Amino acid sequence: MEQVLETIVAKSRKELAESRKRIPASLLESRIPELPPVRDFAAALRRPGRRVIAELKAASPSKGAIRPELDREVERLAAGLEAAGAAALSVLTERNFFLGSGMNLRRARGSVDIPLLRKDFIYDEYQILEARVWGADAILLIAAMLTPEEFRKLRAFAASLGLAVLCEAHTADELDMLLDGGAEIVGINARNLSTFETSLALAGELIRQIPAGKIAVAESAIRSADDLNAMEQVGAKAFLIGETLMRAERPGEKLCELLSK
Ligand SMILES: O=C(O)c1ccccc1NCC(=O)[C@H](O)[C@H](O)COP(=O)(O)O
After folding, report:
1. CATH number at 3-14+43-260
2. In the prediction, which pLDDT does 236 show?
3. Which of 2, 57, 60 should be mutated for ligand 1, with most atoms under 8 A from CB?
4. Which positions are annotated as active-site residues?
5. Which of 1, 166, 213, 244 is the most exposed, fewest CB within 10 Å of its CB?
């Protein structure tokens, strides 16, 4: 596993142990029957037109602070991005490196009707229960941090709760692992997690290898409508965009600009 993932997961494991003590899995499970139904993330990524998953991202390991006041504007930004045409929102819930939170996911849930992705580093069923209880409709599973068996197990558990899974690869081997494990929504991340360098060209090569019928998602480093067009031309059906939107004074207007060309 890349160093950055190891560091993130090591911190997360300590916090998860504390969360599990405070709120046992059985308590999370007991809340599920009362929750509103899950929204259809896959259908949102197949709807007509350009489908952007707009990411609420306050900071990142590669860029440091991006939008440090995000916590105070989640509701307004989420509503603005939905009005501007976002197909879904991605909400970072990782605390230590991305300054995200479950509270931000709950805030977004209360503000929009489009599906929400819990964007985090998921390796345990408990995190998937949390995602459902906080109002997520989908979770992210990252091939680089899971064995094939772990991937299958976590994906099946998410499905048992009705949650969709965005399955993320950075390399051809990881892509094979996800496809062998039954991935339907397949994200290719243009960011190399060892160097933090991004390459849409390399991402494009992998996107071309995703079978038709799957939902191919281009993730990271989309800065302009030209980038989005380029990813569309190699076969991406949806686009996950964070920093470009979060650095804009008005993210909704920026999204309109990206969608209009
Ligand atoms: O963004 C990072 O620095 C990062 C570092 C380590 C692991 C994951 C990381 N990013 C997660 C993401 O996948 C992006 O937030 C997402 O694809 C949006 O990317 P961008 O549009 O470039 O903000």
Report:
1. 3.20.20.70
2. 98
3. 60
4. 55, 57, 119, 168, 189, 219-220
5. 213
